[in-house]
Amino acid sequence: MRVLLNEVSPRTAAPGSEVSGEALAVLYAHPERWTRANMVATLDGAGAGEDGLTGSVNTPPDNEVYRLLRDLADVVLVGAGTARAEGYGRPGPRLRPGRTPCPDLAVVSRAARVPPGLAGPAPGRGGVWMVTRAAAGERALERARALLGADRVLVHGGAEVDLRAALADLAGRGLSRVLCEGGPSLLADVAAAGLLDELCLSTVPLLAGGDAPRIALGARSGLELRPRLVLERDGTLLHRFVRPTR
C-alpha cells in the first residue's frame, strides 16, 4: 500500500512510502470502546454492484483491509438483511493474535430472525449475538434463543432497537471494539445515534451507474468526519475518516 496521507502514526510511514504487514496494522490500530464502520463504494457512490452485493465491487486491496479490520475487532456488527444477502457465516480465526481466537458477530434484527448461515454450530469460529427489540415478540425471541442460546439474544428498546444500549451491553461483555459492516440502513442508524467513531471507506476505480444505494441510507446524522489516513494500491483508495473529537 502506498501512503498518501498519514496523520495516524507519522513515524510508522511517511507519505510516498509503502506499507504492509504489521506496519499496516499499526496504521489501523484504535483504542477500546471504539466503533468503526468498513464500507466500499465506487467512484460514483454506489455501495454495491449491479447484483446488489458488495462482492462485485470489492478489490484485492479492499479485501486485505477488510481482513485486517476483522482481526482488530472484538465483534462485527451487521444488519440481518445484509447478513442474509451476503451469505454471512460465523467469523473465522484471526490472522494475528487477539483477545479471542475469532471475532464474534452481532446481528441487528428488528424481527429477531436469525439468518440461516448463522443458525447452526460452527466449531472453531466466532460466536453469534442477536441484537433486537421487545416489539419483535416473545415467539420470535424464543426462536432466536433456541438457535443461539438464551444469553446470546440481547433485547434493547421497545418499538425500535436501542443501539446505544446494545453496544454498551456488548462492551460490558468484553466486546468493545466494534466493526460495523452495514448495510446502509444500519450504518445510517449507528451514525444518527452518535455512535460512529470512524469510517473506513474503500473507493474502487469504477463508475457503476445504475441505481445502487449509497453506503448510508435512511436516518440523517450530519456526522462530520476528517481524513486521518489515505492509502492507495492499483487505483483503490483506502481511507480512515475519524470524528474530530476523538
Automatic annotation (TrEMBL):
Pathway in which the depicted protein is active: Cofactor biosynthesis; riboflavin biosynthesis
Zinc-finger found in the keyword field: no
GO biological process: riboflavin biosynthetic process
Short name of one Pfam family: RibD_C
Keyword vocabulary terms for this entry: NADP, Oxidoreductase
Annotated ranges, domain Bacterial bifunctional deaminase-reductase C-terminal: 34-216
Organism of origin: Nocardiopsis flavescens
Name assigned to this protein: Pyrimidine reductase, riboflavin biosynthesis
Keyword hit for Transcription: no
Single GO term (MF): 5-amino-6-(5-phosphoribosylamino)uracil reductase activity
InterPro entries per record: DHFR-like_dom_sf, RibDG_C, Riboflavin_Biosynth_HTPR
